[in-house]
Structures are given as C-alpha cells and as structure tokens.
Design a protein that fits this description.
258 residues; Rossmann fold; 9 helices; 24% strand; seven-stranded mixed β-sheet; three-stranded parallel β-sheet; 10 strands; Dihydrodipicolinate Reductase, domain 2; alpha/beta
Length: 258
Amino acid sequence: MGAVRPRLRHLPRRPPSGVPPPWSPSRRRAWPATSPDHRELLDSGLCDAVVVSSPNMTHSEILMDIIGYAKPHHVLVEKPLCTTVQDCEKVIEAAKQRPDILVQVGLEYRYMPPVAKLIDTVKSGTLGQVRMVAIREHRFPFLVKVNNWNRFNCNSGGTLVEKCCHFFDLIRLFADANPVRVMASGAIDVNHKDEVYHGKVPDIIDNAYVIIEFDNGCRGMLDLCMFAEGSRNEQEISVVGDTGKVQTDAFTILIFEN
C-alpha cells in the first residue's frame, strides 16, 4: 500500500478520504480528510469506494461493516481477504447478497510485467494443456511492521496466507481448475526465534513445501524459504504443458516449445 498511496493523490476530482493508521508519522503524512474509524468514514458520505489496507486480522470486521452498510460502497481489500476460512466464507456470502457493490481482493502479482507476459503465454494455448506449475520464492525475512503484528499467525493468518496467497492465486490461475488435494510441510527454523512480543515468541513458519493437486489433473508446487536473503532470483515461476514450457524470474521470460 505504501507504493499506492502517492499515486492516489493524482486521481481526479475530490481528494481521497480515509482512516489514518494508528501510528504518529502516518498521521502527520495523512490526507486532509480523515476519520478515526471506518464506521465514521462510511457515515460521512465522502466516498463511493473504499480501499481496505489495514492489518489482516481486521479485514473481516471492516468488510462486513462495508458490505452491510445501507449505502453501497465498492471495496478493494488488500490480500488476504481474511485470515480464516470461516471469515472468508462469511464475507463471500455477504457479498453475494449485495449485487450493487463490487468486492475485489488485491493480488497484484498478476500484473508484474514478466508474470503478466507469462499469463498471456499460458492463455494463448502455446503450452497446450497445463500439467505442472512450480513457484520458488527464496527471499529475505518479513519486513518490520508497526508493532510487528505480522509475527503471529493469529494476526496475519500465517506465512502461507500472508505472503504466499499471491502464489496460490497464480498456480490456480495457470491450472485453470480447482484444488482437490493439498500436501504441505513447513517449519520455524531460523527467523524471529530471538524476538519476544508481550511475552510471546513469533510462531510464523519461515520455510515450506506445498503440493496442490487440481480437479483437471494439473499439479502445482510452492518452494518457500524466508531466510535466503541474497538469492540471485528471489522468485522463479515455471509452467509446463504437454506441448511447451514457459519460465520467468524477476527480469526475463523464456518460452520452450516442443
């Protein structure tokens, strides 16, 4: 959201209004029109659409209030939608009852130039039927957040939700199918083990393997390591079909045809 905020200032018509984060530097840089909470913002009548970019564990309550508000407000929520399956189902069901509003989740990895090209290649049929999707992310640990709320599963939903929802979205997009079976293994091996917050040690995993099987026979795999700072390629994606393969890192895309 930090990269988006300056661009919002260039939108036409009235300046955006919002709820300032509970952090004094953010308040000093906030927009002229702010509200102390999302309910007052909705009551103000100042906006037609809402961007929810608050900590993950607050999404469910905020979304339910927006969706249930009498005046329709379109809403874009930063990933993840919610931190639990139950809350996601509740929000989805509520949104279905409001055909007058659009509820979207921001999964911006789809729009990174190399990934966008990869998506176009897969959709073109060049690879034939997609059989395998593999994504590797070997990167640095989670960055510092306000009060480091992202160090605990109860706040973020866990590493595979907070960070890897981008990759599960892409794997499902490439497979063009729904998952039927998931196998995974992860651990807390290196990161944040010496940190303590309110007497508690962080419980988020820092590495994992995940395999997903889809109802059309396609399989996807995620290889995650959060203590591999300095890797040549932080992210690598490959998609293999029965007539070709495409792969990309952060800078290049390669296409191989049989």
